[in-house]
Write a structure and sequence with these properties.
Structural class: mainly beta
Distance between the termini: 21 Å
Oligomer: single chain
Radius of gyration: 15 Å
Number of strands: 8
Helix content: under 10%
Shape: elongated
Order of helices and strands: EHEEEEEEE
Strand order of the largest sheet: 2-1-8-5-6
């Protein structure tokens, strides 16, 4: 039995470029202890958290989990890196870009599995 991992990243200017990169369906084997139907979280929102990183939150985990994803840009060179928050089933997940980087794009990664 396979479960799929769904990623999505939305950006005002870079959305079209990154949509193809993060609209991946990656198959992952389900654990033998996994029981019952699983679904992706729903009622989700995400955004840039001041100038330090990104946040993500979902109203219903539906047996799955979610985490914040941030595309961060180096202030001096424009180099890009990605930052990931912890997997959650409730509350906020925060990603941090780190010193010298500014969050450029906010996104969320959804999984039908409990990754917490």
């Amino acid at each position: 039995m396979n479960a799929s991992l769904k990623r999505s990243l939305v950006a005002p200017a870079a959305g079209a470029l990154l949509a193809g990169l993060f609209s991946l369906g990656v198959a992952a084997p389900a654990s033998a202890t996994t029981a019952g139907p699983q679904a992706h979280p729903s009622g989700c929102s995400y955004g840039i958290n001041h100038r330090s990183g990104t946040y993500a939150r979902c109203d219903h985990h539906n047996g799955g989990s979610y985490r914040a994803v941030g595309q961060c840009k180096r202030d001096t060179t424009g180099a890009i890196k990605f930052a990931y928050g912890p997997w959650k089933q409730s509350g906020f997940s925060y990603s941090s870009c780190g010193a010298g980087y500014t969050p450029h794009v906010a996104g969320i990664e959804l999984s039908p599995r409990n990754n917490t």
